[in-house]
Amino acid sequence: MKIFGIIASMNGENSREYQVIKKYVSNEKYKNDDIKIITADSLDIRYCRGCCSCFETGICPLDSIDDMKNIKKDLLEADLIIMSSPVYVHHVSGFMKNLIDRLGYWTHTFHLIGKPVIVCTSTGNSGAEYVISYLKKIMSALGGIVLGEITIDDMTPIEKIEGTFNSINEVVLEFLKEPDCINVSSFQHTLYKSLRMSLIEQSGYEHEYWRENDMFNYFTFKDYLLYRLNLHN
Questions:
Q1: Does 137 have pLDDT greater than 80?
Q2: pTM flag (> 0.70)
Protein backbone atom coordinates (compact mmCIF):
# COMPACT_ATOMS: atom_id res chain seq x y z
CA MET A 1 0.00 0.00 0.00
CA LYS A 2 1.18 3.51 -0.84
CA ILE A 3 0.71 6.13 1.87
CA PHE A 4 1.18 9.77 0.89
CA GLY A 5 1.07 12.63 3.38
CA ILE A 6 1.26 16.40 2.96
CA ILE A 7 2.12 18.51 6.00
CA ALA A 8 1.51 22.19 5.27
CA SER A 9 3.83 23.55 7.95
CA MET A 10 6.97 25.51 7.19
CA ASN A 11 8.45 24.01 10.36
CA GLY A 12 8.81 20.82 8.35
CA GLU A 13 10.10 17.83 10.27
CA ASN A 14 10.21 19.93 13.45
CA SER A 15 6.44 20.48 13.39
CA ARG A 16 4.20 18.67 15.85
CA GLU A 17 2.14 17.36 12.94
CA TYR A 18 5.15 15.70 11.36
CA GLN A 19 6.14 14.05 14.63
CA VAL A 20 2.61 12.73 15.23
CA ILE A 21 2.00 11.56 11.65
CA LYS A 22 5.44 9.96 11.47
CA LYS A 23 4.52 8.01 14.58
CA TYR A 24 1.17 7.07 13.07
CA VAL A 25 2.66 5.61 9.89
CA SER A 26 5.31 3.80 11.97
CA ASN A 27 2.54 1.51 13.18
CA GLU A 28 3.36 -2.17 12.84
CA LYS A 29 0.43 -2.56 10.44
CA TYR A 30 2.14 -0.29 7.90
CA LYS A 31 5.70 -1.63 8.22
CA ASN A 32 5.78 -3.06 4.69
CA ASP A 33 4.08 -0.11 3.01
CA ASP A 34 5.51 2.54 0.68
CA ILE A 35 5.35 5.70 2.81
CA LYS A 36 6.07 9.24 1.64
CA ILE A 37 5.53 12.31 3.85
CA ILE A 38 6.35 15.73 2.41
CA THR A 39 6.43 19.09 4.18
CA ALA A 40 5.82 22.65 3.02
CA ASP A 41 9.39 23.84 3.62
CA SER A 42 10.74 21.36 1.06
CA LEU A 43 8.36 22.28 -1.77
CA ASP A 44 7.99 24.94 -4.45
CA ILE A 45 4.31 25.57 -5.15
CA ARG A 46 3.54 28.72 -7.13
CA TYR A 47 0.40 30.77 -6.56
CA CYS A 48 -2.61 30.03 -8.73
CA ARG A 49 -2.85 32.71 -11.45
CA GLY A 50 -6.61 32.48 -11.82
CA CYS A 51 -6.26 31.80 -15.56
CA CYS A 52 -8.84 28.95 -15.42
CA SER A 53 -6.77 26.94 -17.90
CA CYS A 54 -7.12 23.85 -15.69
CA PHE A 55 -10.92 23.99 -15.85
CA GLU A 56 -10.84 24.46 -19.63
CA THR A 57 -8.06 22.05 -20.60
CA GLY A 58 -7.25 19.91 -17.57
CA ILE A 59 -3.71 21.33 -17.59
CA CYS A 60 -2.16 23.92 -15.26
CA PRO A 61 0.66 25.81 -17.01
CA LEU A 62 2.50 26.13 -13.70
CA ASP A 63 2.85 22.35 -13.31
CA SER A 64 5.84 22.40 -15.63
CA ILE A 65 7.82 24.84 -13.47
CA ASP A 66 7.14 23.82 -9.86
CA ASP A 67 6.51 20.71 -7.74
CA MET A 68 2.77 20.47 -8.25
CA LYS A 69 2.98 17.91 -11.07
CA ASN A 70 4.76 15.46 -8.75
CA ILE A 71 2.31 16.10 -5.92
CA LYS A 72 -0.63 15.34 -8.21
CA LYS A 73 1.07 12.13 -9.33
CA ASP A 74 1.62 11.06 -5.71
CA LEU A 75 -2.01 11.82 -4.81
CA LEU A 76 -3.33 9.80 -7.75
CA GLU A 77 -1.08 6.82 -6.96
CA ALA A 78 -1.72 6.81 -3.19
CA ASP A 79 -3.83 4.17 -1.47
CA LEU A 80 -4.10 6.32 1.67
CA ILE A 81 -3.78 10.12 1.81
CA ILE A 82 -2.96 12.21 4.88
CA MET A 83 -3.64 15.96 4.63
CA SER A 84 -2.41 18.09 7.51
CA SER A 85 -2.24 21.82 8.22
CA PRO A 86 -1.58 23.89 11.32
CA VAL A 87 -4.21 26.44 12.33
CA TYR A 88 -3.40 29.89 10.96
CA VAL A 89 -5.95 32.50 12.08
CA HIS A 90 -8.70 29.86 12.27
CA HIS A 91 -7.91 28.49 8.82
CA VAL A 92 -5.40 26.31 7.00
CA SER A 93 -1.92 27.66 6.35
CA GLY A 94 -1.25 29.74 3.26
CA PHE A 95 0.71 26.85 1.77
CA MET A 96 -2.20 24.45 2.14
CA LYS A 97 -4.68 26.94 0.70
CA ASN A 98 -2.41 27.55 -2.27
CA LEU A 99 -2.00 23.82 -2.87
CA ILE A 100 -5.78 23.35 -2.73
CA ASP A 101 -6.29 26.25 -5.17
CA ARG A 102 -4.04 24.43 -7.63
CA LEU A 103 -6.27 21.35 -7.30
CA GLY A 104 -9.45 23.34 -7.79
CA TYR A 105 -10.49 21.74 -11.07
CA TRP A 106 -10.35 18.30 -9.48
CA THR A 107 -13.42 19.29 -7.44
CA HIS A 108 -15.37 19.15 -10.73
CA THR A 109 -14.00 15.74 -11.70
CA PHE A 110 -13.57 13.82 -8.41
CA HIS A 111 -10.02 12.86 -9.36
CA LEU A 112 -9.44 11.22 -5.95
CA ILE A 113 -12.62 9.14 -6.13
CA GLY A 114 -12.72 6.48 -3.42
CA LYS A 115 -9.31 7.18 -1.89
CA PRO A 116 -9.27 6.91 1.92
CA VAL A 117 -8.17 10.14 3.60
CA ILE A 118 -7.06 11.19 7.08
CA VAL A 119 -7.09 14.91 7.95
CA CYS A 120 -4.98 16.45 10.67
CA THR A 121 -4.35 19.81 12.32
CA SER A 122 -2.40 21.31 15.20
CA THR A 123 -3.11 24.40 17.24
CA GLY A 124 -1.75 26.15 20.28
CA ASN A 125 -5.16 27.29 21.41
CA SER A 126 -8.20 27.37 19.11
CA GLY A 127 -9.50 27.07 15.55
CA ALA A 128 -8.89 23.36 15.03
CA GLU A 129 -12.55 22.65 14.27
CA TYR A 130 -12.49 25.10 11.35
CA VAL A 131 -9.40 23.56 9.76
CA ILE A 132 -10.68 20.01 10.19
CA SER A 133 -14.07 20.96 8.74
CA TYR A 134 -12.48 22.70 5.74
CA LEU A 135 -10.07 19.86 4.97
CA LYS A 136 -12.86 17.29 5.24
CA LYS A 137 -15.03 19.30 2.84
CA ILE A 138 -12.25 19.82 0.27
CA MET A 139 -11.07 16.22 0.33
CA SER A 140 -14.69 15.08 -0.05
CA ALA A 141 -15.12 17.43 -3.01
CA LEU A 142 -12.05 15.83 -4.59
CA GLY A 143 -13.76 12.44 -4.26
CA GLY A 144 -11.89 11.18 -1.22
CA ILE A 145 -13.48 9.28 1.66
CA VAL A 146 -12.46 10.89 4.95
CA LEU A 147 -12.05 8.05 7.44
CA GLY A 148 -10.42 9.84 10.36
CA GLU A 149 -9.27 13.11 11.86
CA ILE A 150 -6.46 14.00 14.23
CA THR A 151 -6.30 17.20 16.28
CA ILE A 152 -3.14 18.09 18.18
CA ASP A 153 -3.06 20.87 20.75
CA ASP A 154 -1.13 21.78 23.89
CA MET A 155 -3.66 19.97 26.06
CA THR A 156 -3.87 16.69 24.14
CA PRO A 157 -2.39 13.82 26.17
CA ILE A 158 -0.33 11.30 24.25
CA GLU A 159 -2.70 8.54 25.37
CA LYS A 160 -5.59 10.25 23.59
CA ILE A 161 -3.59 10.61 20.37
CA GLU A 162 -2.61 6.95 20.51
CA GLY A 163 -6.25 6.01 21.07
CA THR A 164 -7.18 8.07 18.01
CA PHE A 165 -4.48 6.24 16.02
CA ASN A 166 -5.89 2.87 16.96
CA SER A 167 -9.46 3.87 16.07
CA ILE A 168 -8.43 5.28 12.69
CA ASN A 169 -6.31 2.21 11.92
CA GLU A 170 -9.32 -0.04 12.43
CA VAL A 171 -11.51 2.10 10.16
CA VAL A 172 -8.85 2.36 7.42
CA LEU A 173 -8.07 -1.34 7.39
CA GLU A 174 -11.77 -2.22 7.37
CA PHE A 175 -12.32 0.14 4.43
CA LEU A 176 -9.44 -1.40 2.50
CA LYS A 177 -10.97 -4.85 3.01
CA GLU A 178 -14.63 -3.93 2.47
CA PRO A 179 -14.84 -0.56 0.63
CA ASP A 180 -18.42 -1.21 -0.49
CA CYS A 181 -19.65 -0.78 3.09
CA ILE A 182 -18.45 2.80 3.50
CA ASN A 183 -20.90 5.66 3.92
CA VAL A 184 -20.49 8.71 1.73
CA SER A 185 -21.49 12.24 2.71
CA SER A 186 -24.65 14.03 1.63
CA PHE A 187 -22.32 16.82 0.45
CA GLN A 188 -20.74 14.46 -2.10
CA HIS A 189 -24.15 13.31 -3.32
CA THR A 190 -25.32 16.92 -3.76
CA LEU A 191 -22.12 18.03 -5.49
CA TYR A 192 -22.13 15.06 -7.86
CA LYS A 193 -25.78 15.57 -8.79
CA SER A 194 -25.27 19.30 -9.37
CA LEU A 195 -22.16 18.82 -11.51
CA ARG A 196 -23.78 16.04 -13.54
CA MET A 197 -26.78 18.22 -14.39
CA SER A 198 -24.51 21.12 -15.30
CA LEU A 199 -21.84 19.33 -17.31
CA ILE A 200 -24.04 16.95 -19.29
CA GLU A 201 -25.26 19.85 -21.45
CA GLN A 202 -21.85 21.49 -21.83
CA SER A 203 -18.79 20.87 -23.98
CA GLY A 204 -15.11 21.06 -23.19
CA TYR A 205 -12.60 19.32 -20.95
CA GLU A 206 -14.86 18.65 -17.96
CA HIS A 207 -17.66 17.19 -20.06
CA GLU A 208 -15.18 14.95 -21.89
CA TYR A 209 -13.62 13.80 -18.61
CA TRP A 210 -17.03 12.79 -17.27
CA ARG A 211 -17.92 11.04 -20.55
CA GLU A 212 -14.61 9.17 -20.85
CA ASN A 213 -14.84 7.98 -17.25
CA ASP A 214 -18.50 6.87 -17.55
CA MET A 215 -19.63 9.39 -14.93
CA PHE A 216 -22.79 10.41 -16.80
CA ASN A 217 -23.97 6.79 -16.58
CA TYR A 218 -24.45 7.05 -12.81
CA PHE A 219 -26.96 9.27 -11.06
CA THR A 220 -25.47 9.27 -7.56
CA PHE A 221 -21.98 9.62 -6.13
CA LYS A 222 -22.33 6.32 -4.25
CA ASP A 223 -23.25 4.42 -7.41
CA TYR A 224 -20.30 5.87 -9.31
CA LEU A 225 -17.99 5.25 -6.34
CA LEU A 226 -18.96 1.58 -6.23
CA TYR A 227 -18.44 1.29 -9.98
CA ARG A 228 -14.91 2.72 -9.68
CA LEU A 229 -14.02 0.59 -6.69
CA ASN A 230 -15.20 -2.57 -8.45
CA LEU A 231 -13.43 -1.52 -11.64
CA HIS A 232 -10.07 -1.31 -9.84
CA ASN A 233 -10.60 -4.42 -7.75
A1: yes
A2: yes
